[in-house]
Amino acid sequence: MTKIGILELRDDRFIEDIVSHLHEYEVELLSFGEQSIPIKSDYRVVVDRLSYSDPYLKEIVKNLSLDGTYVINNPFSSTTINKILDIKHFESTGIPYPRTIVLPKIDKSGDLKEIIHEPDWDRITNEISFPCILKPFDGYAWTDVYKIGSLNELKTHYEGMKNDHILIVQNLIKFVDYYRVFCINKRDVLISKWNPKPFYMGEYICSDLKQIEDLKDKIIELTIKLNTILDLDINAVEWCITDDRQAIVIDAFNEVPDIVPEHLPEPYYNWLVEKFSECIKDKCNSNERNKTIFLP
User: Is the dihedral of CA 63, 64, 68, 74 positive or negative?
Assistant: First the structure.
């Protein structure tokens, strides 16, 4: 019988519902102690919703992938994706995005001061309007995200974070509508109206999408194209709509989108369970492997 490994906490309701759709497979919840190297795997698929939080788990699932297990999401892709690389992908695919400047992480020792310079604040003032958004280039779930009202405020926050983070500063986009767009298996797309709030307090809103009838097909097309480039089998891309009918990506990468039945309209939650279960089955029934530069 084909084996599926699940890397997630045991009380996760979404995973419980996924497992209930996989009754024809042998499914195990994974845990790891010491490992012999190279790691061998007898799992056809591993669903990874936890390694983002621990570097040891991330290295384990990378090794499982190299041994032939299909890991969802691709651990090599998810390790390399960040908001700076995302913007390069936006540019190549024609996806609109906020004007962005990356601010350097400053070496505390000063050994690299001739190589890595403090920001040119005059340039930033000319290119970025206030208020703006300051956040880490690899941030997740609103951690260390700040709305900045002035250059002095930007300098103050940067001084407090520059030794620990590579930061990006972006124009604040004024939007009339905001959507969270789930993409599964690089083909199935669910668009949900979204009220963005920090730390898992955002609200999903059922909508007939009439407000974006003119943009819906474009959002779907570009979301699929982006997830194909990023090689993500499950992701949630955040799009905002401006008053001049521009669809702009605000966040392109959610390696482990929060999927909680209490937070989602029931039809949306059921859709996610069904489509993600189908994705897992598709990978189980194929010979597909994760893309990686390490394999011929």
Answer: negative
Mean pLDDT of 21-50: 92
Using pLDDT thresholds of 50, 70 and 90, give the confidence band for residue 1: low
CATH class of 3-76: alpha beta
* Token reading at 57: 């788990």
CB 4, CB 47: distance < 8 Å: yes
DSSP string, 201-264: T-EEE----GGGTTTHHHHHHHHHHHHHHHT-SEEEEEEEE-TTS-EEEEE---SS----GGGS
Residue 40 has pLDDT above 80, yes or no: yes
Beta bridge partners of 48: 7
Question: Could you report the per-residue pLDDT of 64-75, keeping only the tens digit for each?
Answer: 999 999 999 999
Whole-angstrom Cα distance, residue 224 to residue 180? 14
Q: Rounded distance, CA 153 to CA 150, Å?
A: 5
The architecture in CATH of the region 174-276 reads 2-Layer Sandwich (3.30)
Confirm or reject CATH 3.40.1440.10 for domain 99-171, answering yes or no: no
Predicted confidence (pLDDT) per residue in 88-123, tens digit: 889 888 899 999 999 999 988 878 888 998 999 999
What is the residue extent of each domain of the chain? 3-76, 99-171, 174-276
Question: Contacts for 34-43 with beta carbons within 8 Å, 24 or more apart?
Answer: 35/60, 35/63, 37/63, 38/63, 38/66, 38/67, 39/63, 39/64, 39/67, 40/67, 41/67, 41/68, 41/69, 42/3, 43/3, 43/4, 43/5, 43/69
| Environment class of 280 (CB within 10 Å of its CB; exposed 0-12, middle 13-18, buried 19+) | buried
